């Protein structure tokens, strides 16, 4: 049986490393990354439940840490672990919303296709709603099999 050993990052070490990262010390950034990457990955992985998304979000968190460290150090000082975890939580929530929005059009497409097919008495119909269409920019209705031509929206069946 394997034991799960979690090595928690040292707050003092992370705070010192973050101050050096704020001064653009790449070696310190590597050290901060090594200290926090497992905790960040675990945090976003639990939120997202998807390894690929967790990897992408973890990378984005550390890119933001690198780019915003000087601003954070100037305004807030230390508390590196809490700051990085807050970035991770925000990034994971954003990714969760993006993933939900990406899946929403597919669910909408399937439902719209079923409803439209039922409304047309089972005639074959292709319904495609891309993101712009889903936002209301336009609607495309494919070929209605019953008449051999495109039916404009709202035109009665013949």
How would you sum up this structure, described in words?
The chain is mainly alpha-helical and 158 residues long. The protein has 2 domains: 11-103, RNA polymerase sigma factor, region 2, helix turn helix motif (Rna Polymerase Sigma Factor, Chain: A); 120-158, no CATH class. It has helices spanning 11-22, 26-48, 51-75, 80-119, 131-134, and strands at 127-128, 140-141. Strands 1-2 form a two-stranded antiparallel ribbon. It starts with 10 loop residues before the first helix and ends in a 17-residue tail after the last strand. GO terms for molecular function: DNA-binding transcription factor activity. One of its GO terms (biological process) is DNA-templated transcription initiation. It comes from Catenuloplanes niger. This is RNA polymerase sigma-70 factor (ECF subfamily).
Order of helices and strands: HHHHEHE
Task: Let me know the largest β-sheet.
Answer: 2 strands, antiparallel
Low-confidence stretches: 1-5, 124-153
- What is the CATH-assigned architecture of the largest domain? Orthogonal Bundle
Q: CATH superfamily membership of the largest domain, which one?
A: RNA polymerase sigma factor, region 2, helix turn helix motif
SSE class: mainly alpha
Compute the number of strand runs: 2
Percent of residues in β-strands:
under 5%
Structural domain count: 2
Chain-averaged pLDDT: 75
Radius of gyration, rounded? 25 Å
Protein name: RNA polymerase sigma-70 factor (ECF subfamily)
GO molecular function: DNA-binding transcription factor activity
GO biological process, one term: DNA-templated transcription initiation
């Amino acid at each position: 049986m394997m034991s799960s050993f979690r090595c928690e990052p040292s707050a003092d070490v992370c705070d010192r490393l973050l101050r050096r990262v704020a001064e653009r010390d790449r070696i310190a950034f590597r050290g901060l990354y090594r200290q926090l990457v497992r905790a960040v990955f675990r945090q976003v992985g639990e939120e997202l439940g998807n390894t690929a998304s967790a990897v992408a979000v973890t990378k984005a968190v550390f890119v933001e840490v690198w780019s915003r460290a000087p601003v954070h150090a100037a305004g807030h000082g230390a508390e590196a672990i809490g700051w990085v975890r807050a970035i991770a939580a925000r990034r994971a929530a954003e990714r969760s919303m993006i993933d939900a929005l990406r899946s929403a059009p597919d669910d909408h497409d399937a439902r719209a296709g079923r409803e439209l097919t039922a409304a047309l008495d089972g005639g074959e119909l292709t319904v495609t709603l891309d993101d712009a269409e889903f936002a209301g920019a336009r609607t495309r209705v494919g070929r209605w099999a019953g008449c051999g031509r495109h039916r404009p929206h709202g035109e009665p069946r013949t």
